[in-house]
Hints:
Blueprint: E1 5-10, H1 21-33, E2 37-42, H2 45-49, H3 56-59, E3 67-70, H4 87-91, H5 93-100, H6 117-130, E4 135-140, H7 147-156, E5 159-164, H8 183-195, E6 198-201, H9 204-213, E7 221-223, E8 248-252, H10 261-274, E9 282-286, H11 297-305, E10 311-313, H12 322-326, E11 331-335, H13 346-353, E12 357-360, H14 366-371, E13 377-379, H15 385-401, H16 404-414, H17 419-429
Parallel strand pairs: 1-2, 1-4, 2-3, 4-5, 5-6, 6-7, 8-9, 8-11, 9-10, 11-12, 12-13
Helix pairs in contact: 1-17, 6-7, 10-15, 13-16
Amino acid sequence: MSRPHLLYTAWSFPPSRAGGVYRALATVNAFAAAGWDVTVLTVPESVFSGSTGTDAALLQEVDGRVRIVRDEPDVPAFQNDLTRWPWLRARQPELYKLIDLRRDLPRFPEPNYGRWRPRLEAVAERIHREHPVDVAIGTANPHVDFIPGWHLNRRFGVRHVMDYRDAWQLDVFSGRRLITATPDVRRWERRLMASADEMWFVNEAIRSWHAAQHPGESEKMHVVANGFDEYGNPLRVPVRDGREQGLVFGYIGTITPKVPLKSLIQGWARARREEPALAGARLDLRGYLGHFGAGEVETQRLVAEAETDGIRYLGPVAKTAISETYRGFDALVLALGTGRYVTSGKVYEYAATGIPVVSVHDPGNAASDVLRGSPSWVPSRSLSVDDVADALAAGARLARDQTPMAREAAQEWAAGYSRTAQLEPRIAALAPR
């Protein structure tokens, strides 16, 4: 019996360091491990090196059986060599951008990315003719990634899956419909969902919202949580030796304006003054300042001023070195933007370590649903400075007293959130009939 063939379309794929890359990497590797031939349709590496940045080590984590096809999307937003800009773009960028939208919106209702649709269709069809595709999965955003599956379904009856890492119409922070959710976007989403075999969402809150918007398609909607990945070294780290000399708290993740950094810093300073378990403690921040490698000025200022309170910014850490980084922490800080639909992929990785996790986010965030029941979770009642300080103090006491047995119990609790455990049921459901 021949091996089934998956076509997987993803803008963010190794060596990109953008957040969605880990879900894409884990998915294609899981299908390859399950006996599928896998072809990935993505963009050239130069797109990432000139914008969101790269992590070369991630490319080595792609299963060697996976074939990667890179196609140039010709998106101006990622063309940063000014010497190659047209005169109009250099002299009147706003006018150029307005005119340039005509290359996108008539093809697909997504600024910057809509123009990629014709090439995506052509490349997907070529791949299918060379090696017939059994299932096509597109992971968004951008949402034009859904096009190859829809096109192959329409032309050849290929089953396709829409994997939402976020949402096309929903602002996951405010809970309101995005201003970009135009009538064309709504029509296209209905059209794509009608032909899809499955739609995947990262948490139940986002799935439920879409089910309410598209009740006729709700039975095809599934939660496939981001889960945690392990690259070589396990995330089940032991209790750190030397914590009695001073606890080390850690935050790992991109620090964007959505992160409640000011509340965290002020709450940390108060807790460190008042809680004996925090005597001599420090908080290490690891990650990029902003999505595009250039830190926001206000974020940089806050971090610099916090150094006197034992807060250090140590820069990003490669995903392949993440286990060793966690070994140096006694407690973790989960600081997230406010929003009922916000989970963050980092929550699963944090849970997998078994290290005490202090939540510094709105209690209504979907991340609370993930951690509820964990023996190592300490939630903040709110984002007020007093409540954040209380949570950090409680987290310090838990970290100081956590035994190896308690650490193992927390790790066992989190085991079901491995990326593999999340993907296995869906891979089985998509197996050739």
